[in-house]
């Protein structure tokens, strides 16, 4: 069966700005070929077994050849794979859409194009800059600030428009500003440069055409950045809104996979939140001398094993009237899980025939079934690696001492070293004690773990450092 390719726009950087159709295609894809400007958090929408191929192109650095990318798309499609070519912004704006679509068409590969929110307009909007404004700008044009090899910049035609948005223009910024002046633009005209637009790394500076090149050098503004020229550029000074979000600039890793409500509220207030690490749990079939239905006195060593046991029972098509007659739990939490699932715990008298646990370490009584197979999420590991490579994570939140221990084990004892250049936030005394035992400095601490308390302590940290 022949596969297909979807060329999908990932949007300008904020993972929440991808289209619903783009997200759905990511969830179903067998292969994802993605670029440097695709935010790593978008990969969380992909399935564990998918192949994720990084084709990042660093300006003036090493890159996967465009011809090789096109070959990969065709090869995987011919293997019957569903392929997503994930590109930053909109694939039709300075992103090789034409070349890739032509090659796929010539090869007879089925493809579709899913537009994305282009960085030029989105970056301007997140900087509080309208691309058009009735009394200031009635036209807008996109300009490439970079040309193919052996093509002089002088061959790029600067359009006649009230607002110009330059992509990839930082390296040649002095040339472009001098050329604008030579072509009649007012040297004192307004310019805004938006670096890493729509992300926690966003920085915006305003200036004039005649001096903006020096300004960006002094401020250390580099690619990726947009250069917005025109009278609407100065509106950033009083329409900026993104920078005003309480948690803007917070790119946080939370060593927990729960509290979705709290995470969503943090995102609403401007934070990017990544949960890590994560284990995928599947049911390990039992290897027992008797049929599972033969065991009538069963002990559950932890609460997680209860729903896994019932799910396995259902999957096998066993009659629920044949469930064990006597069940016991290791502790109060396990007993509550048993009762909640319709298995009221027994008083514990009688010899246990089978012990079921989801984690290792229980004192085994009778036969033993390690029901849970735990494996680190491949997706989470790849996303973490990309976040680390891009130096995205600047804050780490711990809400229990177990999270501290788990992450330290996952990092092979290197948690203290990893936290050195990050803001560490602890919720609860036990959590703080666990961090201090690892010689980790705590920057912010709160007593509880409610959404309000967590957001309050994160906002206090943000306000103190901005």
Automatic annotation (TrEMBL):
<keyword id="KW-0808">Transferase</keyword>
<comment type="similarity">
    <text>Belongs to the precorrin methyltransferase family.</text>
</comment>
<dbReference type="InterPro" id="IPR006366">
    <property type="entry name" value="CobA/CysG_C"/>
</dbReference>
<dbReference type="InterPro" id="IPR036108">
    <property type="entry name" value="4pyrrol_syn_uPrphyn_synt_sf"/>
</dbReference>
<dbReference type="InterPro" id="IPR050161">
    <property type="entry name" value="Siro_Cobalamin_biosynth"/>
</dbReference>
<keyword id="KW-0489">Methyltransferase</keyword>
<dbReference type="GO" id="GO:0032259">
    <property type="term" value="P:methylation"/>
</dbReference>
<dbReference type="InterPro" id="IPR014776">
    <property type="entry name" value="4pyrrole_Mease_sub2"/>
</dbReference>
<dbReference type="GO" id="GO:0019354">
    <property type="term" value="P:siroheme biosynthetic process"/>
</dbReference>
<dbReference type="InterPro" id="IPR000878">
    <property type="entry name" value="4pyrrol_Mease"/>
</dbReference>
<dbReference type="GO" id="GO:0004852">
    <property type="term" value="F:uroporphyrinogen-III synthase activity"/>
</dbReference>
<dbReference type="GO" id="GO:0004851">
    <property type="term" value="F:uroporphyrin-III C-methyltransferase activity"/>
</dbReference>
<dbReference type="Pfam" id="PF00590">
    <property type="entry name" value="TP_methylase"/>
</dbReference>
<dbReference type="InterPro" id="IPR035996">
    <property type="entry name" value="4pyrrol_Methylase_sf"/>
</dbReference>
<keyword id="KW-0949">S-adenosyl-L-methionine</keyword>
<protein>
    <recommendedName>
        <fullName>Uroporphyrinogen-III C-methyltransferase</fullName>
        <ecNumber>2.1.1.107</ecNumber>
    </recommendedName>
</protein>
<dbReference type="InterPro" id="IPR014777">
    <property type="entry name" value="4pyrrole_Mease_sub1"/>
</dbReference>
<feature type="domain" description="Tetrapyrrole methylase">
    <location>
        <begin position="5"/>
        <end position="212"/>
    </location>
</feature>
<keyword id="KW-0456">Lyase</keyword>
<keyword id="KW-0627">Porphyrin biosynthesis</keyword>
